[in-house]
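thought: user wants a sequence for this fold. calling inverse folding tool.
action: design(structure=
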């Protein structure tokens, strides 16, 4: 994941299907939430409120439930 606008690995996404629910959280190294979506088709491009975040360590948590 390198959101530098070169068209290669500029966003990070979750690939799945057949979900009952989906929650994706991304946090910075201090535990502040920088991204959330409940739509698995929406990738994260390394920004928050349109502002590019600094390179660093980010942690994500995915909660999901399948239909079957």
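)
observation: tool returned 68 residues.
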């Amino acid at each position: 994941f390198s959101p530098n606008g070169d068209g290669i690995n500029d966003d990070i996404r979750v690939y799945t299907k057949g979900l009952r629910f989906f929650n994706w959280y991304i946090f910075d190294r201090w535990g502040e939430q920088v991204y959330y979506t409940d739509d698995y088709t929406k990738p994260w491009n390394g920004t928050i409120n349109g502002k590019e975040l600094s390179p660093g360590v980010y942690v994500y948590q995915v909660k999901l439930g399948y239909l079957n």
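thought: summarizing for user.
answer: Here is the designed sequence. Strands lie at 19-27, 33-37, 47-48, 51-52, 59-66.
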